[in-house]
Amino acid sequence: AKEAIKEAERCDPESIFTQFSIYKIAVQENNVEKAAEALNAVGRLSKTSVSSEDRLLVSESSASYLLSLAAQIALENGGQETAIKALEVLCENSKDEGHVLMGLRCLVRLVFSALEKSADELRDLNMDVLLPYLKLALQTISHQSHMTAEQRAEDANWFRKIAWNSALQCESSPDRMRDFFVLSYQLSLLCPPDRTLLLGQRTCLLMAAAASLELCRKSPHSIQAEELTLVLEHIQACWEVWKTLKASALAMEPPAYFPLLCKKALRVALSLHKKQPQADLKHCRHRYTAYKYNTLPLKQLLE
């Protein structure tokens, strides 16, 4: 197989299938560096148009499937590092948002799997690897044009929880904690708002502000103003969320944030109204008539 691939590479080095075969042999031989080179070539060739008539056309989706298969092959052969590389190449080169989000979910799971096995000194390194995956997820979901509202909310909520849980693991690192909480807040903005979500947003912003204050205490005087500006931005956003939470939201017409809560509040209001003494409508009519013909001052009418 190696001899055949060498000949194929000599004849047509720009074939994505040749590079994929080189990758498979490299995985079998546990040659991580060679596998990474082949994956980079597959990613590069997936964006290159093929003009020759006697060569196979490869669609972008086909290239994405090849890279997904490459990750599966690596995992089946115990090559987690190579699998991560294959998924990263997929996310970097695919224009299909669905494939990108699928790849990012797999990458997040692989990172958390590594976190469970890693020593404390490697934990921060793995968290740094996780952060760009979540940022790419936020960008992809925000610009996803073919998603339904339900799909968008589902993906955003999944990555929001990952960012939240990641922030909780960064108690000793205020900068990482702040970044993860801010990402969790930004992802929550892509989900349908309800009371639970708004409470989560408020917590994210408060924790991000607290982390920024902690960084400010440890920072040189020259950059403290920047950190304090971020604190003010987080507090202002938190105040907006808090005002929404404090709103009664009795209006049922759009943009009503809590329709179920509105109905419940209206039922309670109606129940309380029924328990109050009923007004004497006949007496009120006589008082209004007296006011209408200027025989009763307005103050007495309101009383």
UniProtKB/TrEMBL annotation:
PANTHER family reported in the protein's UniProt record: PROTEIN ZIP4 HOMOLOG, TESTIS EXPRESSED 11
Record protein name field: Testis-expressed sequence 11 protein
Upper taxonomic lineage: Eukaryota, Metazoa, Chordata, Craniata, Vertebrata
